[in-house]
Amino acid sequence: MNRNLLEAEEGKEYIVKDIVTEDEELNAFLFSLGCYSGEPITVISHLKSSCVVSIKDARYNIDTDLAHAIAI
Q1: pLDDT tens digits for 58-69?
Q2: CA quadruple 62, 24, 71, 2: dihedral sign
Q3: pTM of the predicted structure, to 2 decimals
Q4: Phi and psi (nearest 5°) for 65?
Q5: In this structure, is the dihedral angle defined by the CA atoms of residues 69, 19, 26 and 50, taken in order, positive or negative?
Q6: How, if at all, do strands 50-55 and 13-15 pair?
Q7: Could you please report the per-residue DSSP string of the chain?
Q8: Neighbour-count burial of 38, counting CB atoms closer than 10 A to its CB (0-12 exposed, 13-18 middle, 19+ buried)
Q9: CA gyration radius for the chain?
Q10: d(Cα 18, Cα 39) in Å, to the nearest integer?
């Protein structure tokens, strides 16, 4: 069973398996960040309503809805 970024360990690199959403805008936004199937992603830290991730040497603060949509 796929896990999502909310379940990821901080500091560990994962490979994005899928983006689980029907929302095309959300999918396009994540793609624009370089977050798509096959790409490595690292959770830097979990915050109360978001998490900080590293994708392609850049850091992003994504909300829990986005994190939930990223399967690892």
Answers
A1: 999 999 999 999
A2: positive
A3: 0.91
A4: -65, -45
A5: positive
A6: unpaired
A7: ---BGGGPPTT-EEE--EE--S-HHHHHHHHHTT--TT-EEEEEEE-SSEEEEEETTEEEEEEHHHHHHEE-
A8: exposed
A9: 11
A10: 10
pLDDT tens digits for 9-28? 999 999 999 999 999 999 99
What is the C-alpha end-to-end distance of the chain, expressed in Å? 10
State how far Cα 2 lies from the chain centre.
13
The pair of structure tokens assigned to 48 is 């109360």
